[in-house]
Write a structure and sequence with these properties.
By secondary structure, this protein is mainly β. It is 2% helix and 49% strand. It contains one helix and 16 strands.
C-alpha cells in the first residue's frame, strides 16, 4: 500500500490544526498557534506572524480570508504576505466558526448565533435567528448551516432560513 510522509517540517509538533486550505499553489493550515503557510506543496511550513488562533479559511477570487478567535476576519490579497482587518459590521472579539463562498459572496458563521455576508465593505446580517452555527457549506447553489444542536438549515433568498427537512423531502 501507500505510505504517508510527514510534511510538518517547520510546524510545531503536536500543533492543534483547525482547518486546511489551498489557494492556488499556496497551502494554509490554521491552528491554535496561528496560520502556517507552505509554498512548496507542504514540504516546508512557515508560521505567519501575529495572526492569532485560526478557525476558518476560504478563498474568493484572488483573496484569502481567515476567521480568527479573537480577531474576527482578515483578508489577504497577496497569498498571506499582508493582512487587512475587515471587521466592519462585526465585533473583532467574535470567534469565526466557519467561512464559505456562496453566490459570489463570503459568508461567516460567528460563535454568537449570527451568520453574516461580506458585501465588499461591511458584514451584513443574513437573517439567521437560531442556535450557534458550527459550519457552512455551499453546494449546488444552496447554502447550508450546521448547528450546535444537530440541525441543518438552508438559506432561501437573502435573509430567510428554513429547516433542511422543509426544503428537501428525499429523493
Amino acid at each position: 500500500g501507500e505510505a504517508y510522509v510527514d510534511s510538518s517540517n517547520g510546524m510545531e509538533r503536536n500543533v492543534n490544526l483547525n482547518t486546511l486550505h489551498a489557494h492556488g499553489d499556496v497551502l494554509f493550515a490554521g491552528s491554535s498557534d496561528g496560520l502556517y503557510r507552505s509554498t512548496d506543496a507542504g514540504a516546508t511550513w512557515e508560521l505567519l506572524p501575529d495572526l492569532g488562533v485560526v478557525f476558518a479559511l476560504v478563498s474568493h477570487g484572488d483573496s484569502v480570508y481567515v476567521g480568527l478567535y479573537p480577531g474576527g476576519v482578515l483578508r489577504s490579497d497577496d497569498s498571506g504576505d499582508t493582512w487587512t482587518d475587515i471587521n466592519h459590521g462585526i465585533d473583532s472579539d467574535d470567534r469565526i466558526n466557519a467561512l464559505v463562498v456562496h453566490d459570489d459572496a463570503v459568508f461567516a458563521a460567528l460563535n454568537r448565533s449570527v451568520v453574516v455576508r461580506w458585501n465588499g465593505e461591511t458584514w451584513v446580517d443574513s437573517g439567521w435567528d437560531g442556535e450557534i452555527v458550527n459550519d457552512l457549506l455551499s453546494v449546488d447553489g444552496v447554502l447550508l448551516a450546521g448547528t450546535s444542536r444537530g440541525g441543518i438549515w438552508v438559506l432561501v433568498g437573502d435573509e430567510q432560513w428554513i429547516a433542511f427537512e422543509e426544503r428537501y423531502t428525499g429523493g
